[in-house]
Design goal:
This protein is an alpha/beta fold. It is built from ten helices and twelve strands. It is elongated and about 60 Å long.
């Protein structure tokens, strides 16, 4: 099983930066030596329960959930790859980048969501089926590394968040934008775009049937780095909460990194919510 993408130190670091705090500023507020906090964030030291609770309170993280990850007492249960309506999810893990690509479809047609796995492996997962579209949650390099090769010589549209369209325009012939709330109809499949900015300006979760492909908006037990800075950090958390974590608890979540999870698991165990 793929381990959690983020450990205690990642959670502290992401929240600290999201709040616009330096290590020294957080150390002063927490009464914990700055070298100790740096060691937490660098995976060189484990916290005590007291240290974990103090940092949780300062960084608006749920203390019980944070300690569950610090103590390594939780991991999400395996998620079934069969979706409502007879759809199936092929999961492609690329170890060097610790990233997922997904092939979603039925026995005759399919859609590629993100293109961070090797093109040959993506081709094997598609098999004899018709690839009707490529959908991108965002355009970071580890999510589009195989895009040009996958679409070369193939008449297939590539859909990307409107905010990031320019980043992939030269990688494929037919690049199309989508915006928040759009229904993206490709072949017999209909996805809904749920814009959850924070990791990137265009970061968008893609919902279909009883599943959401979350890109780097949400990981099991964490969120992606909020690269838009302190102003974007609360927006990142709020849009994930409002647009993803209000879905039924059994909704399956397929993130860009780390293990698959569900809405119920994240509500119960993700320290950011």
């Amino acid at each position: 099983m793929v381990p959690l993408e983020d450990e205690f130190g990642d959670l502290i670091g992401k929240s600290r930066r999201g709040h616009g705090l330096t290590v020294e500023e957080l150390a002063g507020k927490a009464g914990i030596d700055a070298d100790v906090i740096s060691a937490f964030e660098g995976y060189r030291r484990d916290p005590t329960r007291e240290q974990s609770d103090v940092l949780a309170g300062l960084l608006a993280l749920d203390a019980e959930k944070l300690w569950g990850i610090a103590a390594d007492t939780w991991a999400p249960a395996p998620v079934e790859t069969a979706l409502e309506g007879g759809l199936k999810v092929g999961q492609l893990w690329y170890g060097p980048d610790r990233v997922w690509a997904y092939v979603v479809g039925d026995d005759s047609q399919c859609v590629l969501i993100d293109a961070g796995a090797p093109a040959a492996e993506i081709g094997e997962a598609i098999g004899a089926r018709a690839l009707v579209a490529v959908l991108l949650t965002h355009t970071d390099g580890d999510h589009v590394s195989a895009l040009a090769e996958v679409t070369k010589g193939v008449d297939v549209p590539v859909y990307a968040p409107v905010q990031e369209l320019d980043a992939v325009t030269g990688m494929a012939v037919d690049v199309r934008p989508f915006s928040d709330g759009d229904s993206i109809e490709v072949g017999p499949f209909k996805f809904k775009a749920l814009h959850t900015p924070g990791h990137t300006a265009g970061e968008t979760c893609l919902a279909i049937a009883d599943a959401v492909f979350a890109g780097d908006a949400l990981f099991a037990g964490s969120i992606g780095s909020s690269n838009l800075g302190p102003d974007g950090f609360p927006v990142h958390k709020q849009t994930v909460r409002d647009k993803v974590l209000t879905l039924p608890g059994a909704t399956k979540l397929f993130p860009g990194h780390g293990p698959q999870t569900t809405v119920a698991e994240e509500l119960a165990h993700n320290p950011f919510f």
